């Protein structure tokens, strides 16, 4: 006896066969099958081992609520674990394997762990993961080894190590009405909203629209319900203002009516066209949402309820009607409600034998009785299933049961079966509504929680909203669609529904107490006894219950276990269920691949930011480094050169003849308007209103708290037109700073700031021959000392391109910054290289730039580190005494003028060994004995000009230590050695070279 | 006149790419105009600025939020409160300088600083929706209107210049990286890079 394909029923395409493998063996199924239905059709009921006890487990549901049948999908070397077999659409070549078993699914050594069952009760981790507290193993690592073994034994599938070659994408969508769920209610809602002219998105997690219509066996209008649903879906998909998204699970409901959905785009080989993502993450901003997510069946908890062959009655019905699969040949039904009778009749009609209907209720409706007759069996009323047998279900035990007292009595009667279809009634799928806010409302008649009143603009429809029949689903669906479209309910006739008049109310029985392990949460192996144990140990709040027992955790999030678990806790506490409450559902509704959440954000949020001369640098051997998003040349290495050799050569060339450096990355901000000069006077510590047109000035900015923010030169290009430059790193921060003060503090100032960093390419030409290089290529202006004095600006052309040249120096040499339109950057750079050829012009990178500035004692971000003041850096000469400026009010706070603050000095290595940035400066100590730090090195290099290892440092007392000895202490890099503290102006302190 | 060099470099690969089963769904092109100018008005002066820009370019430009105009030789669209991005021929800067007095606002030349990338074709809305969280549907984003938005670090100012055509203005330094993202996003729909 085993499950098999039914003779004729089902919506699968029997004309086509699809081969797939399960644990290495090949089977076949049909398009329209899920892996679960195809496995059942091949007679396979044992598909996995349970989480804790390694008990054999089968297929329990037919949908998203599956707790048991988790498999690992293999693709090449890739593995995707923990996918419910009920959610895998069958395709040709699908390869899956079962999980959590060794050596095989059939013979799993892990099942021996069941013998330790009592040890593995609720709170197991909390109680036992503390290690021995007495005996010889106390305080040893023994327990850590045990932990490892225990963690290996418990668990789900294992992920692969290979790179996932699949593509994941993100999509943004906007609509007037989002309809979640394309069952009868959702289809009606989408149609109504679309007819009212709204932009509609209809999302359905299954491949086909229809929901319950696919397996209800009802008629809608003159057609079988599934045909009606298909026709509706086709019509909607062809409607211009509707986007129908099948295979799309709406999994998160966030603020502002933003919902997240996951579309399985190419999880099937048919969809592997180039560029197609495997999964697509939808961010949907909806005006209104119609929640038509239906309901989920819950089981009754009884001993042995986890054996392969036990499944939900609705699932059994769905396998028979939608997939044309008989989940067994001798099927018993166990129920507390009328719904399972429809399943019994459907199973019989599909060709299975229904051997018993066991109902806890003493009485049933006429419609149920008629269905029992169709199923060919007399229902056993006032009975319950109290036990099962078989590795795969072979037998159940039935006993008398009193629904009023919950007591079992009389002798057990064995019945041979291979499938038991169980129903404990239906709970609305309220997850999204709960995520949107609000507390679910208990409905006594349905013995279920209904959705809360909306806290966001959503409307409920269908079984989600408590509709008890398909007629109600159609009408609430249409009304919800109209309401979401801002229209009144319609009185037009709805299609007639032909369905048995079943009683929707279940008996309030969710547990049968009898001897044996009765599972509440199949995925986490949580038993009814575990829930009672949690109660006895004081974990009585539902939130504590969840955490203590793991009830409702993991991939299924307790879709089949939440309510039975609550019912057992309520019973233990002697309270009604609503007083015990329910946990708040959180996203995601069902598992979402991390790949989809990360999505294919090209370059991982980190676009390459390139200067106009980037390709030239790369083409000329530059080794590039990243500076924020920017890519900048570190060195232009020659064959066989080390980085140090390269930068020393480059820096030496600047001091000796001439070098050229790409400075396009400097932040550049156009500051314009009649109040521009006044604004700069407020922003900078020094004065800019007095700066003549055609001149530049070095400026320093403080934060409001008196700490240095940034420095740079600002060029006056016109009376109301300034070009501010900032450091590369702080460009964005300075822009925000300026915008904040203009928008919020001084909105009356007429000043506009615009980022023009990208408008200009910049090249620094530095060295004693710099002027000669310019003389050789600049036209339209003189560049001599008169035409272009220090800090002067001229306009001219280089190789036909307009340029703006400012004479300023970061290197301490005679130097110019040549700016041109970025589109001309490479052209002008090459012209400068040509003009510089007779002078052996040398391109230099960041390393040489750093060495040159350290030699000069110029500060950068390493010293302007968000903690230093202008005085700390000996820039107090730039603090104007004639005007207030941002930071002037707070810069003289006591702690900011303390004598012992860390202040800028130069450091020279006395042992000829290199110094490292970040190393401490100490007065005494050794490599092993750490001395008290008096400061730290901010930047270090080998100075080609001084031919020594030097650095800049921030040390207590600063200048007062000039001429004294100290030590560099860098225990991480095993460096300890003598240094001398000197002035930070190592090279040409009078500035003769740059003024020359 | 020195030619401007495109920042796209080798990333610009003319021809058809990606999934071409249904033909290319979008065409991608660099359409940086000769001149790009940001025009900014003082508070209360946006209408005057819109009039001045309209006068200098011949465009029918309103001062309403998101407003824009598309002409043969010039385009303009709102990129924020009091600000327009104006494009045109080589004489644009001179014309605008004449038309916009300091009492109205300021002009900033961005001809080299911004790059215009065009996404056109039946799948343009689809492709752009992957990159930007704004509504590209024609009803929400009519022809000629503009939006200022961002794709992570890449700021983008977008104008709809046709029923299925969008021009995106991005920072020059990020243009190559963004172009590559755009090509990657277009692979699913199939794309043709045109000169």
TrEMBL record, chain A:
Residues 516-601 form the SoxA A3 domain. Residues 176-437 form the FAD/NAD(P)-binding domain. Pfam families: Fer2_4, GCV_T, GCV_T_C, Pyr_redox_2, SO_alpha_A3. Residues 903-988 form the Aminomethyltransferase C-terminal domain. Residues 613-883 form the GCVT N-terminal domain. Keywords: Oxidoreductase. Belongs to the GcvT family. PANTHER family: AMINOMETHYLTRANSFERASE, AMINOMETHYLTRANSFERASE, MITOCHONDRIAL. NCBIfam families: soxA (TIGR01372). This is Sarcosine oxidase subunit alpha family protein. It comes from Chelativorans intermedius.
UniProtKB/TrEMBL annotation, chain B:
SUPFAM superfamilies: Folate-binding domain (SSF103025). Residues 66-191 form the GCVT N-terminal domain. InterPro entries: GCVT_N (IPR006222), TrmE/GcvT-like (IPR027266). Coiled coil: none annotated. This is Sarcosine oxidase subunit gamma family protein. It comes from Chelativorans intermedius.
